């Protein structure tokens, strides 16, 4: 009998049977969980956060599912934002930190004649919420009321066996949302798990379905892969399963031929990401795209999406500098049309033009960063909006001396910031007259003395 909502009893681990401790849960997430519970709602920590805590890892996010509807959550917290059009999510803000709260929902049915799930906006029960998730290891709940772990889909066994398995028939789940194939591979690479044989077979059989997904979502997953610290291993697995041929054919061919240059670039990126507590957000889209496109020798101007209809979350503004002027100032030349027609690069992903323009400036700036220039020239370069990204590229891809050189330039940048904040002293007679005069303090007369 197929395991579905309503015909299976959950496996529940009591507090002594698992290693999750509240001291390892984000304090703000605990505040949200307790406030929901104290007002009579079910409130669970869900998904990857529970999985990582069971593995002894520090979760990247702490997401919460609850029986409270978005408007009920709104009444309990002040600084909240309700986001999403198809399904409303609540973001509870604590300064710069965001705790995402979702109401329990159930899986939606695809529209007639279509296998893709295009809507996911029906409220449901905790059990239905577990079954609508992608992989068993992502469908575990931690109950703040009694500190138990609840498992409806055999996720605990898969965590112990270190296996990635879809919930239900993998062929059906991947047809519903082909991006799940990317997630399965990326999750296995990041956690050092293996992919369940049935799930792996479905990925190989359905790999061509990936092009039916929104390219904006695919590109978002692509950047997540590059940020997670296991990009080389993930690219190797994407090549092994045949997915890379549909997304980045030139990368697929490069790996088929050995992939040394591409793998060296990804190794440096992973080493930088894993070297310390670096904020993944400092690895910008421009830098990440360059770590793949530059070793493939792809002409950047010819792979930019001309008018992308999407914006990444927290979309980065275009560079303030005029591109042609900056390229000329950095000693580069604007790419013109090729003299003879040539086939375009086989890059499927719609990289945003603003990200690739910024990447071109970062790369052109590398020569200037290695030249001994005048103090004024160094200050001018340190004032550019792409300066920090250029230094990060130097640290990652600049060779053995890159980190030390970047550290020296960061001192120049701090000095430039300090000078910009310090008020300028008047230099001309006119400026001196216009400057506010310091008021002389009047001397107090001592008692018993008289004016001369």
Largest sheet: 8 strands, mixed
Task: Give the number of DSSP strands.
Answer: 14
Report the uncertain regions: 307-319
Shape: globular
Strand order in the largest sheet: 1-10-9-2-3-6-5-4
Helical percentage:
40-55%
Rg over C-alpha atoms, rounded to the nearest angstrom = 28 Å
Structural class comes to alpha+beta
- End-to-end distance, in Å? 111 Å
Strand content: 5-15%
pLDDT averaged over residues? 84
Number of helices: 20
Describe, in short, the structure shown:
Helix content is 44%, strand content 11%.
Any overview of this molecule?
This protein has 452 residues and is α+β, with helices and mostly antiparallel strands. Helices cover 44% and strands 11% of the residues. The chain has an 8-stranded mixed beta sheet with strand order 1-10-9-2-3-6-5-4. Strand 9 and strand 10 form a beta hairpin. Helix 6 packs across helix 8, helix 14 crosses helix 16 and helix 18 packs antiparallel against helix 19. 35% of the residues are buried.
Keyword list:
about 450 residues, 8-stranded mixed β-sheet, 14 strands
Write the layout of secondary structure elements.
Elements: E1 11-13, H1 27-38, E2 43-46, H2 48-54, E3 63-66, H3 70-76, E4 80-83, E5 89-94, E6 97-103, E7 105-106, E8 122-123, H4 126-131, E9 140-143, E10 148-151, H5 155-161, E11 163-164, H6 170-176, H7 179-191, E12 194-195, H8 197-206, H9 215-227, H10 231-241, H11 244-247, H12 249-256, H13 260-274, H14 285-293, E13 304-305, H15 323-329, E14 351-352, H16 353-370, H17 375-382, H18 387-397, H19 402-421, H20 429-434
Parallel strand pairs: 3-6, 11-12, 13-14
Antiparallel strand pairs: 1-10, 2-3, 2-9, 4-5, 5-6, 7-8, 9-10
């Amino acid at each position: 009998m197929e395991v579905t909502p309503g015909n299976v009893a959950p496996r529940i681990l009591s507090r002594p049977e698992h290693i999750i401790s509240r001291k390892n849960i984000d304090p703000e997430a605990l505040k949200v969980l307790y406030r929901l519970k104290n007002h009579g709602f079910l409130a669970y920590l869900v998904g990857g956060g529970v999985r990582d805590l069971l593995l002894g890892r520090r979760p990247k996010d702490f997401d919460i599912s609850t029986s409270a509807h978005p408007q009920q959550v709104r009444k309990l917290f002040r600084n909240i934002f309700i986001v999403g059009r198809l399904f409303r999510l609540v973001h509870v803000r604590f300064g710069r930190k965001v705790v995402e709260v979702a109401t329990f929902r159930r899986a939606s049915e695809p529209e007639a004649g279509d296998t893709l799930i295009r809507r996911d906006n029906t409220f449901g029960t905790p059990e239905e919420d577990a079954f609508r998730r992608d992989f068993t290891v992502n469908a575990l709940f931690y109950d703040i009321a009694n500190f138990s772990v609840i498992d409806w889909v055999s996720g605990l066994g898969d965590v112990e066996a270190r296996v990635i398995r879809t919930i239900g028939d993998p062929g059906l789940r991947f047809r519903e949302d082909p991006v799940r194939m990317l997630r399965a591979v990326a999750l296995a690479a990041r956690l050092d798990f293996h992919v369940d044989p049935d799930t792996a077979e479905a990925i190989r059989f359905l790999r061509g379905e990936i092009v039916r997904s929104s390219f904006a979502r695919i590109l978002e997953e692509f950047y997540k892969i590059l940020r997670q610290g296991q990009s080389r291993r993930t690219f190797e697995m994407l090549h092994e399963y045949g997915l890379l041929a549909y997304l980045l054919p030139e990368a697929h061919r490069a790996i088929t031929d050995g992939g040394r240059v591409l793998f060296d670039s990804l190794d440096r990126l992973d080493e930088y990401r894993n070297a310390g507590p670096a904020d993944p957000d400092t690895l910008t889209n421009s830098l990440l795209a360059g770590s793949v496109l530059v070793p493939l020798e792809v002409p950047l101007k010819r792979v930019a999406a001309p008018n992308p209809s999407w914006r990444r979350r927290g979309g980065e503004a275009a560079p303030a500098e005029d591109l042609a002027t900056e390229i000329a100032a950095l000693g580069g030349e604007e790419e013109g049309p090729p003299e003879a027609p040539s086939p375009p690069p086989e890059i499927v992903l719609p990289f945003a033009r603003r990200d690739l323009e910024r990447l071109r400036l970062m790369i052109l700036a590398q020569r200037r960063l290695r030249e001994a220039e005048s103090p004024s020239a160094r200050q001018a370069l340190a004032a550019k909006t792409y300066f920090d990204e250029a230094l990060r590229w130097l640290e990652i891809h600049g060779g053995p001396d890159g980190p030390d050189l970047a550290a020296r330039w960061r001192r120049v940048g701090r000095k430039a910031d300090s000078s910009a904040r310090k008020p300028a002293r008047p230099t001309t007679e006119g400026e001196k007259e216009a400057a506010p005069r310091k008021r002389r303090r009047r001397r107090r007369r001592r008692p018993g003395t008289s004016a001369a």
